[in-house]
Design goal:
Number of strands: 7
Number of helices: 0
Shape: globular
CATH architecture of one domain: Sandwich
GO molecular function: RNA binding
Radius of gyration: 12 Å
Structural class: mainly beta
CATH superfamily of one domain: TRAP-like
GO biological process, one term: DNA-templated transcription termination
Oligomer: single chain
Family: Belongs to the MtrB family.
Strand content: over 45%
Largest sheet: 4 strands, antiparallel
Strand order of the largest sheet: 4-1-6-7
Organism: Paenibacillus borealis
Pfam families: TrpBP
Length: about 80
C-alpha cells in the first residue's frame, strides 16, 4: 500500500441520518468508485485524500468539515 502524499487533505463527515454513504473516487484517466462506507446517524468518518483517492461523494444528510470550511449535504 502506498502512503498518503505529504500534506494530503482530510475531511470529516458526520451522519445526520441513517444510511449516509461516503464514496471514494479514483485518480487517473478513468474516474471510478473504489470504496464506499455507510454511516448511521451520529457516526463520524475521517477520510483522507491519497494517491488513489481524488474525490469523495456524500449521499444522505451529513455535516462535512474540511480545511475549506463546513457545509451540509441535503440528500
Amino acid at each position: 500500500m502506498n502512503p498518503a502524499p505529504s500534506g494530503s487533505d482530510y475531511i470529516v463527515v458526520k451522519a445526520k441520518e441513517n444510511g449516509v454513504q461516503v464514496i471514494g473516487l479514483t485518480r487517473g484517466l478513468d474516474t471510478r468508485f473504489h470504496h464506499t462506507e455507510k454511516l448511521d446517524k451520529g457516526e463520524v468518518l475521517i477520510a483522507q485524500f491519497t494517491d488513489h483517492t481524488s474525490a469523495m461523494k456524500i449521499r444522505g444528510k451529513a455535516e462535512i468539515w474540511s480545511k475549506h470550511g463546513q457545509l451540509e449535504s441535503e440528500s
